[in-house]
C-alpha cells in the first residue's frame, strides 16, 4: 500500500483485514511509515496474504507542514485477484487539520496533535494496541458521560462536558471537581434552581437517566448536585478483550474526593450488572490522614483494585477479588486466577441453587468479553466513605441520611479548603493522567 507524498513528514496506517476499523480505533496492524520510496510513502508486509473478495478497513494519519490530518473509515476491497497497480491514497483535503504543537503544549482540551498507537503489527507479545498521551482530548475515542445520577452510589457530583472539569494541559489530562455555584454565579442556585441536561445533540445529550440523572430541581433543604466533575469513557473509539492497561497518573488530594480508573463491558453479554462484570483498576480517597476503624490508612495513601461479578446485584462477591496497596508504582495489586470452575465457583455460587449465567462460556466469564476504559472523579456518596472511618475532620453526612448531599454542602467550610482551590488553579484536587497504554497479550 502506498500514499502519494504532498509534503508529509509522517504517515501512520491503521488497518484490519475483513474486520471493520471505526474512527481512530486501533487495527490489527498499526504502523508508522517514516521513509519514502520515490514520491510515495510505501508500506509492505509480505507476511500478510489477502484473497479475492477480502477487504481492508483502515484509517490514515499524516503530518504535513506541522499540521495533523486524518482520513477515517476507509475501505479497499480486492476485486481482481492479480492487480497490476498499487493502492494509492491521495491527500485528504476535505478533512480537518489541527494546529501545530510542541511536545507538550497548553491545550485546555482543544485539538493539538493527534496521538496514535506506534506499534508494529502484533508479531510478538505483549503488543501495544492503544496509546493516548493526552496532547488533547480525542473525542473520536473518549465520550463524556453527562448525568446527575451519582454513579449508582448517590455521589454528589454532576458529570459535565466542559473545559473547567476536563482538559489537557502540558500533555496531561486533568479531571477536576469544581463547585456548581461557581459555574452558575449564584450562591442560592442549589436550593432554587433547576438542572436539565436532556440535550439535543451528540455533545450535550444526557447519557444516564437512572437516579433522576437528566433533570433535577432544587428546593430548600434539598440541594442540587453541589459539585461538577467529569467522567470519560473510551467506548466511542476503543474497546478490547484481554490485555494489560498501563496508566501513569497523579491522584487528587482533598476531603471526600473519589478518583477512579476502571472498566465496564461494551455489551451486557451475560445480563445486567454485575452479571457481565466490572473491573476496577484503581480507586482511592483524597482525604489526608484518613483511617478505618481499625486504624488502617484508607485515604490518599491507599489504593484498591476490585472485580465485580455475580448473577444479580444482591450477589456480588467482590470481597473475594479485592486488594489494596500503599505503594503501587510497578507493583501488582490484585491477581485473580479461577480454576476450571470459573468465577462461578470462585464466587462460591456453586454451593447455591442460583442459575449460572456463564455456564456456556469460558472459565474467564464474565471477563472474557470486550471492555472499555472509564476515567472519573466523583465526590462523596454513600458507603465508600464509611461512617466508621475517621480523619482530621468529621464526615459531614451519614450514609442513611435522606439529605446527605445537603449535609455535605452545608459543611463546605470544612472540606473545601482541603482542595486548595486557590493554589495551582485548584489542580491539587484533579486526577492528572499523563498517559494510557494498552498492551494486547498473547492469545
From TrEMBL:
The keyword Glycosyltransferase does not apply. Keywords: Immunity, Innate immunity. GO terms for molecular function: carbohydrate binding; hydrolase activity, hydrolyzing O-glycosyl compounds. Coiled coil: none annotated. PROSITE patterns: CBM39, GH16_2. Signal peptide: none annotated. Residues 111-443 form the GH16 domain. InterPro entries: Beta-glucanase-like, BGBP_N, BGBP_N_sf, ConA-like_dom_sf, Glycosyl_Hydrlase_16. It comes from the Eukaryota. Residues 78-94 have a biased composition (Basic and acidic residues). Residues 95-119 have a biased composition (Polar residues). GO terms for biological process: carbohydrate metabolic process; innate immune response. Residues 1-83 form the CBM39 domain. The keyword Ubl conjugation does not apply. Residues 78-119 are annotated as: Disordered. Belongs to the insect beta-1,3-glucan binding protein family. This is Uncharacterized protein.
Amino acid at each position: 500500500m502506498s500514499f502519494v507524498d504532498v509534503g508529509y513528514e509522517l504517515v501512520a496506517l491503521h488497518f484490519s483485514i475483513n474486520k471493520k476499523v471505526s474512527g481512530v480505533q486501533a487495527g490489527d496492524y498499526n504502523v508508522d511509515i517514516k521513509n519514502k520510496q520515490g514520491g510515495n510513502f510505501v508500506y509492505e508486509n509480505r507476511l500478510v496474504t489477502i484473497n479475492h473478495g477480502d477487504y481492508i478497513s483502515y484509517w490514515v494519519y499524516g503530518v504535513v507542514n506541522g499540521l495533523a490530518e486524518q482520513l477515517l473509515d476507509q475501505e479497499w476491497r480486492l476485486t481482481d485477484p492479480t492487480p497490476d497497480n498499487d493502492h494509492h491514497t491521495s491527500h485528504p483535503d476535505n478533512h480537518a487539520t489541527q494546529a501545530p504543537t510542541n511536545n507538550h503544549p497548553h491545550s485546555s482540551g482543544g485539538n493539538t496533535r493527534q496521538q496514535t498507537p506506534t506499534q508494529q503489527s502484533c508479531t510478538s507479545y505483549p503488543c501495544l494496541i492503544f496509546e493516548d498521551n493526552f496532547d488533547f482530548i480525542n473525542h473520536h475515542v473518549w465520550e463524556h458521560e453527562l448525568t446527575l445520577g451519582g454513579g449508582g452510589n448517590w455521589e454528589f457530583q454532576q458529570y459535565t462536558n466542559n473545559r473547567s472539569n476536563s482538559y489537557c494541559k502540558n500533555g496531561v489530562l486533568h479531571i477536576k471537581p469544581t463547585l456548581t455555584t461557581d459555574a452558575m454565579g449564584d450562591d442560592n442556585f442549589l436550593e432554587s434552581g433547576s438542572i436539565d441536561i436532556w440535550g439535543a445533540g451528540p455533545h450535550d445529550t444526557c447519557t444516564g437517566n437512572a437516579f433522576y440523572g437528566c433533570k433535577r430541581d432544587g428546593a430548600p433543604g434539598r440541594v442540587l448536585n453541589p459539585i461538577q466533575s467529569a467522567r470519560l469513557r473510551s467506548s466511542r473509539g476503543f474497546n478490547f478483550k484481554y490485555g494489560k492497561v498501563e496508566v501513569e497518573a497523579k491522584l487528587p488530594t482533598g476531603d471526600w474526593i473519589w478518583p477512579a480508573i476502571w472498566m465496564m463491558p461494551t455489551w451486557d453479554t451475560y445480563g445486567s450488572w454485575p452479571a457481565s462484570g466490572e473491573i476496577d483498576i484503581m480507586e482511592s480517597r483524597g482525604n489526608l490522614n484518613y483511617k478505618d476503624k481499625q486504624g488502617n490508612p484508607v485515604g490518599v495513601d491507599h489504593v484498591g483494585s476490585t472485580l465485580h461479578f455475580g448473577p444479580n446485584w444482591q450477589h456480588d462477591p467482590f470481597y473475594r477479588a479485592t486488594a489494596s496497596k500503599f505503594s503501587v508504582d510497578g507493583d501488582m495489586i490484585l491477581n485473580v486466577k479461577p480454576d476450571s470452575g470459573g468465577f462461578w465457583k470462585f464466587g462460591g455460587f456453586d454451593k447455591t441453587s442460583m442459575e449460572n449465567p456463564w455456564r456456556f462460556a469460558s472459565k474467564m466469564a464474565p471477563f472474557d468479553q470486550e471492555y472499555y476504559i472509564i476515567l472519573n472523579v466523583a465526590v462523596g456518596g454513600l458507603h465508600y466513605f464509611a461512617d466508621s472511618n475517621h480523619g482530621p475532620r468529621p464526615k459531614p453526612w451519614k450514609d442513611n441520611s435522606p439529605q446527605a448531599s445537603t449535609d455535605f454542602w452545608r459543611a463546605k467550610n470544612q472540606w473545601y479548603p482541603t482542595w486548595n482551590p486557590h493554589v495551582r488553579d485548584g489542580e491539587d484536587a484533579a486526577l492528572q493522567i499523563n498517559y494510557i497504554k494498552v498492551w494486547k497479550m498473547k492469545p
